[in-house]
Design a protein that fits this description.
- The protein has nine helices and seven strands.
- It has a seven-stranded parallel sheet, with helices on both faces.
- Strand 4, helix 4 and strand 5 form a beta-alpha-beta unit.
- By secondary structure, the protein is α/β, with parallel strands linked by helices.
Length: about 260
């Protein structure tokens, strides 16, 4: 794993951030980027403690400050414990929430889906966002920012067998707009990013190489995105440079889809 020294940018110096699913891929890049801007980062993970520890070590080696907290963010009790641990470590105010936890889980056509599958995928991709957004309001004050990591699938319905995943990510976009109206008067902003094909374990696992090769030929930028590029956009939306931006869903897909 590559590490680099934290740049002395400090745009988020003194801020406290919670990143769900923050141990690998886009979550790791977001955690690293927030730390590079001076934020104290609570890295949430659920299953892979090794990846969480690697991300934590990378941040510390680069001069940043972070902790890791295990929590299943589809469960209310775990979510409450997650934010309590962040507040215990860094103080009672949480300034930034990145709802990044999610995943396709697998590909199933509708005739193959059952109720358990529906609940598993929708809970992971939307209930987690709803629970964490609701809970962070006990700690977030005026000037706070929430960034939801949605997906291009929310725009176009996703690829074969990913209908429930796409619906969960679309619900996240709608919730972003609803919360922008509800939380705006409190001085809290909420936005979403919609990544297309990003070079991560997600696509290594669930996307056929032929599909990735086709994107390399057809995408206007002729390549997949990098997790660090998504992290840069997330960090922008979390910071003061986007202080008049709320309720948006910003595409980051190399020009594969315009919305």
């Amino acid at each position: 794993m590559r590490t680099h020294k934290i740049k002395e940018m400090n745009n988020l110096k003194g801020k406290v951030a919670v990143v769900t699913g923050g141990a690998r891929d886009i979550g790791r890049a977001v955690s690293m980027k927030l730390a590079s801007e001076g934020a104290k980062v609570c890295i949430n993970y659920c299953h892979d403690k090794t990846k969480a520890e690697e991300t934590l070590e990378a941040i510390k080696k680069a001069g940043g400050e972070a902790i890791i907290v295990r929590a299943d963010v589809t469960r209310e009790g775990d979510v409450k414990a997650l934010f309590a641990e962040a507040a215990k470590a860094f103080g009672p105010r949480i300034d930034i929430l990145v709802n990044n936890a999610g995943g396709i889980v697998g590909r199933k056509r509708i005739e193959e889906q059952d109720e358990e599958w529906y609940n598993t995928v929708l809970d992971l991709n939307f209930k987690s966002c709803w629970l964490c957004t609701r809970e962070v309001l006990h700690y977030m004050k005026e000037g706070g920012a929430i960034v939801n990591v949605s997906s291009q699938a929310a725009r176009d319905g996703g690829g074969p067998g990913s209908s429930i995943y796409a619906c969960g990510k679309a619900a996240m976009l709608c919730h972003t707009r609803a919360m922008a109206k509800e939380l705006g008067p409190q001085g809290i902003r909420i936005n979403a990013v919609c990544p297309g094909m990003i070079d991560t374990l997600f696509h290594d696992t669930f996307t056929p190489q032929a599909n990735r090769d086709a994107l390399h030929r057809s995408a206007p930028l002729r390549r997949e995105g990098e997790a660090s590029e998504v992290a840069g956009l997330v960090c922008f939306l979390a910071g003061s440079e986007s202080s008049y931006v709320t309720g948006t869903g910003i595409d980051i897909n190399g020009g594969c889809l315009f919305s």
